[in-house]
Description:
Elements: E1 2-4, E2 7-9, H1 20-23, E3 34-36, E4 43-45, E5 53-55, H2 65-76, E6 84-87, E7 90-94, H3 102-109, E8 114-119, H4 126-139, E9 144-148, H5 149-152, H6 164-183, E10 187-191, H7 197-204, E11 212-218, H8 221-227, H9 232-237, E12 259-262, H10 271-284, E13 290-294, E14 297-302, E15 311-314, E16 320-323
Parallel strand pairs: 8-10, 8-11, 9-10, 11-12
Antiparallel strand pairs: 1-2, 3-4, 4-5, 6-7, 13-14, 15-16
Helix pairs in contact: 4-10, 6-7
Amino acid sequence: MTAVxxxxxxxxxKFSDSDFSEVLPAKPTFAKAAVLYTxxxxxxxxxxxxxxxxxxxxxxxxxxxxxxxxxxxxxxxGKSKVQITTVGESSNIVWHKSSVEKSDREELLNQKGxxxxxxxxxxxxxxxxxxxxxxxxxARGKLSxxxxxxxCRHGLNSNLSFKAEDRAExxxxxxxxxxxxxxxxxxxxxxxxxxYRKDRDACRALLPEGDFIEVxxxxxxxxxxxxxxxxxxxxxxxxxxxxxxGVDDPYEPPLNSEIVLCQRENMCNSPNALAEIVISYLExxxxxxxxxxxxxxxxxxxxxPTMMKAEISQGQVQRDRARTSLHTGLQCIT
Length: 334
């Protein structure tokens, strides 16, 4: 053991697993009492002069401290082996598996993580639906997060242009972030044009079967151009924007979306009504219902269907899909 400044460093290579019993206390000690409430209740810890804090339920507390130390120390003694891999341009990397798994986080949140991918032309109502959906989930006590295409270009993707290769990278990054949100147990709502099928399918492939829910805003170009909330169609028609989707760059509509929302000029449904359609799908598929433990996973035990008629069919890759047709007018969704 050597001293460096105010820190002392252990040469772990000199220790075996059994030696740690002499270095580390058998049980954690606190200057004040520590009281744990598990089983979905509160967890309160006081240590030293620190103020008490109330945390959410922590399932890991069911395991003993000794078990955790033994598992951790196995790596220090060199007994555990890791697999070094290469992914893309990244070499000599190792995937570190967490002891807290997705199912643990889902149990904590009382929901199932997934990605709702809203795609469609500019002006089709993607962002409006995303906001209405997030609000409706919040009202039900479900945690969601919106990855809006424009919002992500304010930070994460601010170094990307609208060239074909940059648009593909924009979608790839958002897909990877959405995957992380879903793995954390959050219902992630991605809202962006994502005009090309191959890019959307690549994002779908990142997630387990059924966890990627594609919502296609099926709105005619003429209706989107009439709305033109950002004035982008006008600029594109004037030649001031090149490569604009729907004008001089194609949009490839999905072939087998889980949900299709058709909007036409002669009828109108509110964003909240559209959100309820998506939520009814989530509840039926077990993403946003009431939850109970079942073996190593969870299942929805209550579903409150809305006034929606869904036609269930088998997709090309044997997925259950609900195709929903809904007619809305231009003044309701922007």
